[in-house]
Amino acid sequence: MKKYMKKIIFTLMFAIFGLSTQAQTEKCATMQILEKRIAKDPSIKLRMEQSEIKTQKWISANSNAKGGIQLVTIPVVVHVLWNDPIENISAAQIQSQIDILNEDFRLLNSDSLDSSHPFWQFTADTEIEFCLATRDPNGNATSGITRTYTDSIAFIEMDSPKYTVTGGSDSWDPTQYLNLWVCHLNDGLGLLGYAAFPADLATDPDLDGVVISYTAFGYIGTATAPNDLGRTGTHEVGHWLNLRHIWGDDTCGDDFVADTEIAEAANYGCPTFPHNANSTCGSGVDGEMYMNYMDYVDDACMNMFTYDQGIRMQSALNGDRAGLLTSLGCSAPTGLLNEGSLENGFQIYPNPSNGNFTVDTHMLKYDNISISVYDLLGSKIQKFENIKSFPFKMDLNDLSNGIYYFKINCGNKTITQKVIIAK
Ligand SMILES: [Zn+2]
To answer: Per residue in 352-382, pLDDT tens?
Structure first.
């Protein structure tokens, strides 16, 4: 493979914000949002250029020394925004997205390139992992999931999911968590998601995070082919950690990464290897690296980050996103560890309710789970035994208004949660 020679950084600055004029569907709105924001506030461009200089400095100091790379676990809070109940996706579907992130970023994905493939040598374990947060910003135990009913049938304004006042959900401290919103995006555009870059964190913390369509989230439930393997999440979190599109959002553009082959434009569907070999842009005999997560191909046809993409993401974690390195979001609060780990595993919603409760869990294996309902005096009113599938719906409409307790038995452990019926 002919390595793409990186041009010097100051030349590149002119190409960073080249406007994309592609007529094809934009699966990801990350760059369009950035361009719009720069049009309104030109200082953003300067800030990103300064951040890029810092990034390149860190990369040159660390890219050859493995010492710069460390295993990092990023706490994630998933904000589910729903209008139609189908958009209120299950905890298992959320966990399936976290699992995909962990596989893809650690090169544990079962579809990674075979060692005989010419691009195999560039595939990389980025040493970045993710957990659903077990501790919230107040130090309390959490499932790492928030659920918000919204009046928005579809989110058209890109910033709306990120604010409670506009029908979304306010973010958790973005220096400590990856905020990931799942909602109904504007269907007509074929838009799957978008992300904020690290350079924006300090000046626009409210806008930090990743937004993904409920139809392209995780690999079960509402995930829909060809976006049903969780790779929208992998792609957008790549942006959130400062990766650019592989074609540099311009004809033969630059993605600021040395070991990705130069690409003429976005690739779609499922190209055959080698694709666009010996292009006018200068791709080598092996063609473009369309199977990179930062291209636009179908989920089933993308399968790799490169080593230099990994370094670039590590640079973000040692720069603008350094707060994550000391975040306690993945450490369940002390003292609640045993009970808490089980407690984190279940969610009851809505609470209060009119008597229709849903109990959900992000545990993918269920073992002899039962739920008993007690009243304030401690009398057992009802018991649901041997529950095999979640989310599990409970109809307690016959009960009068008041406080009740759910005792959830899971294996040999029990947790008790207070619920309120208010009709
Ligand atoms: Zn993108």
So the answer is: 899 999 988 766 556 678 899 988 888 888 9
Domain spans, the chain: 9-326, 345-421
Distance 34 CA to ligand 1 centre (A): 11
Catalytic residue among 236, 261, 288, 343: 236
DSSP type of residue 262: P
pLDDT, tens only, 276-324: 999 999 999 999 999 999 999 999 999 999 999 999 999 999 999 999 9
- With beta carbons less than 8 A apart as the criterion, state whether 387 and 394 touch: no
Active site residue 343: no
**How many angstroms separate the alpha carbon of residue 285 from the centre of ligand 1?**
26
Contact yes or no for 194/201 (Cβ under 8 A): no
Kindly report, residue by residue over 48-77, the tens digit of the pLDDT.
999 999 999 999 988 775 555 789 999 999
> For residue 302, how far is its CA from the centre of ligand 1 (angstroms)?
13
The CA 272 to ligand 1 mean position distance, Å, reads: 21
Specify whether domain 9-326 bears CATH 3.40.390.10: yes
CATH class held by domain 345-421: mainly beta
**73 phi, psi to nearest 5 deg:** -115, 120
